[in-house]
Design the sequence.
């Protein structure tokens, strides 16, 4: 690695062994300090350039530590990002990310179960629409400006109520992982919260218990809260989007012109929400530690406990085996001690409540004597009504204390972990598998263009007129024009036209390099150019990395390099050799010319007025191309029938040629 290279970047996933517990903890990089100037460094809390700020999962604690104290676990990359391969003692090689597959380890919320190695493509967002995300509605495209949700809450006493667009900061989270969340206004099913009594002003109760009605009555009567909490423990039962405000950008292809009066409404509600869809091409690549998603448990998933997973992660860091048991034992004893203290505190509080509830015998006698005393004659309220009011007040106070006691025993309904159960999971750890297209070095690029300038004029004398791709003054649109003219001519003369569009499977990656060199020699290219091309293709060695395992060195004998300036011309020459070996028969007559084959880049199109002719030419192609390493892709190869009588052929029918089946387009 270069001296001035950044070791970590924003939102990179890192890990370290906690000095307190001895277990591995994971986190995300928030800021790095290597790029700061000396003046900025003096004003900041950083001590040197090698320190980074990390937020640890799940408690959300932020820490500034030296970058050599943590280990990089996963990079925060997206498709299209430019990367550089760092090798000691070798020049750097640049490339860009083509495809990213992320596999995550998740925790099922409100349980202690862990599931490992889940593809991010199997996750679903807990929030249907996110602010600043792109959406489309019929033929219109826009961006989400605001989202209003109706959240259903349930309390421990059985009361169920809804709140329209509640503000997240009015609640206190009881989940440790919520403090890690970067987005403050996030609700998800099963989330445990403490809710302030002030928020009940806007609540709509679906079901209210006697305890909750007592609580709300005492709150409105300004009950003395000296010994009682003003918070109620609830959990999120359901979330429904009530409206989405969208700022519309433009309209795609449509018969209706995009005038202002035809634009959709800015606020989407009701059944129109079903037509509103999100545009998130990189959804599966943007997950990170701490995110919550919906996931459906599969039969093949292996569920383990949180303790087993943490011990497993710690073993991968080669932690000293004699240190681990004592640390785990210490933590267990500490939890036991806390448990006994909590129980004793609950007993003390319950004893105090009982002492308040049960008056002494002296108090009873005094109450009875007071009841027997006659009331003043000026009172307009009967003695029975006074007794009823007092008893109702005492009853409400008892129910109030009972509700407070129940709040201490707050539990969320048990989450099912059986297969096919839909649960909310939290990302604990990620691992990315990245497909990188490596660019070639600058020196070879210059050499490749020098060879291309000399080989391109020579190749024009070899290639036939059927090829329209990767040639000067020719494009694939020329071939499209030819097919349209042929189709129009066939319709005019009431002839059926059969076209088979052939696509090769991994065309560039299937070319045998030794076969290519022999073809260049057969076409009498200068031996000096042939040797230069041969030198650039030979002695290519690669190693394959899967997770942390690296394979042995493998010699590459096939494929043309992606991004190489010579590759298109070399592929055209291989295809020319294949076409010359076909000896195609018949075709479609256009004036004095018979056209039986058209090529557009790495694809072919066989044409004919007879179905048997097209099939026979395709059989020859399968045999000849197979000797050069090319295979036909059955899924992408399509056949088309154009003519006035083509209606008798149904769309979706297959054309069978030997063991190949090509679908009709």
Sequence:
């Amino acid at each position: 690695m270069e001296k001035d290279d950044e070791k970590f970047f924003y939102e990179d996933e890192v890990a370290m062994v906690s000095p307190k517990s001895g277990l591995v903890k994971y986190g995300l990089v928030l800021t790095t300090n290597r790029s700061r100037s000396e003046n900025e460094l003096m004003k900041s809390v950083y001590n040197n350039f090698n320190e980074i700020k990390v937020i640890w999962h799940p408690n959300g604690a932020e820490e500034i530590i030296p970058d050599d104290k943590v280990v990089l676990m996963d990079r925060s990359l997206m498709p299209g990002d430019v990367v550089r391969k760092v090798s000691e003692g070798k020049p750097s090689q640049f490339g860009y990310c083509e495809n990213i597959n992320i596999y995550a380890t998740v925790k099922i919320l409100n349980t202690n179960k862990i599931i490992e190695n889940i593809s991010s493509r199997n996750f679903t967002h807990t929030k249907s629409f996110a602010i600043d995300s792109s959406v489309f509605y019929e033929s219109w495209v826009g961006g989400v400006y605001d989202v209003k949700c109706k959240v259903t809450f349930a309390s421990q006493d059985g009361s169920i109520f809804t709140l329209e667009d509640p503000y997240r900061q009015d609640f206190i989270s009881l989940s440790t992982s919520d403090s890690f969340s970067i987005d403050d206004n996030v609700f998800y099913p099963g989330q445990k919260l403490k809710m302030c009594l002030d928020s009940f002003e806007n609540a709509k109760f679906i079901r209210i218990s006697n305890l909750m009605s007592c609580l709300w009555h005492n709150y409105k009567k300004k009950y003395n809260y000296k010994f009682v909490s003003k918070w109620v423990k609830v959990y999120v039962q359901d979330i429904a989007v009530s409206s989405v405000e969208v700022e519309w950008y433009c309209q795609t292809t449509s018969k209706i012109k995009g005038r202002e009066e035809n634009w959709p409404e800015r606020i989407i509600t009701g059944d129109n929400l079903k037509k509103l869809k999100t545009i998130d091409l990189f959804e599966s690549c943007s997950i990170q530690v701490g995110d919550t998603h919906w996931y459906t448990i599969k039969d093949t998933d292996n569920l383990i406990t949180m303790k087993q997973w943490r011990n497993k992660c710690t073993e991968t860091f080669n932690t000293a085996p004699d240190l681990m048991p004592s640390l785990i034992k210490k933590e267990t004893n500490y939890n036991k001690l806390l448990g006994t203290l909590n129980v004793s505190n609950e007993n003390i509080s319950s004893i105090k409540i009982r002492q308040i509830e049960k008056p002494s015998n002296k108090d009873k006698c005094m109450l009875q004597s007071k009841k027997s005393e006659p009331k003043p004659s000026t009172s307009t309220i009967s003695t029975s009504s006074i007794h009823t009011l007092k008893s109702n007040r005492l009853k409400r106070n008892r129910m109030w204390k009972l509700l407070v006691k129940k709040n201490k025993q707050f539990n969320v309904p048990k989450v099912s972990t059986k297969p096919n159960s839909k649960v909310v999971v939290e990302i604990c750890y990620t691992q990315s598998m990245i497909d990188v297209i490596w660019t070639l070095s600058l020196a070879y690029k210059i050499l490749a263009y020098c060879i291309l300038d000399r080989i391109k004029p020579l190749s024009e004398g070899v290639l036939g007129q059927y090829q329209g791709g990767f040639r000067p003054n020719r494009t694939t649109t020329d071939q499209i024009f030819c097919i349209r003219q042929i189709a129009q001519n066939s319709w005019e003369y009431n002839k059926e036209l059969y076209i088979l569009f052939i696509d090769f499977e991994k065309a560039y990656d299937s070319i045998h390099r030794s076969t290519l060199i022999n073809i260049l020699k057969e076409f009498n290219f200068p031996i000096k150019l042939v040797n230069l091309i041969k030198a650039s293709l030979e002695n290519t060695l690669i190693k394959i990395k899967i997770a942390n395992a690296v394979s042995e060195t493998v010699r590459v004998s096939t494929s043309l390099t992606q991004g190489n300036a010579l590759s298109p011309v070399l592929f055209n020459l291989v295809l020319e050799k294949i076409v010359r070996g076909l000896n195609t028969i018949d075709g479609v007559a256009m004036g004095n010319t018979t056209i039986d084959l058209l090529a557009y880049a790495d694809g072919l199109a066989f044409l004919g007025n007879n179905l048997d002719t097209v099939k026979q030419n395709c059989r020859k192609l399968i045999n000849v191309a197979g000797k050069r390493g090319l295979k036909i892709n059955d899924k992408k190869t399509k056949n088309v029938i154009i003519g006035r009588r083509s209606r008798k052929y149904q769309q979706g029918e297959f054309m069978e040629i030997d063991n190949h089946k090509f679908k009709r387009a």
Observations:
- The mean pLDDT is 77.
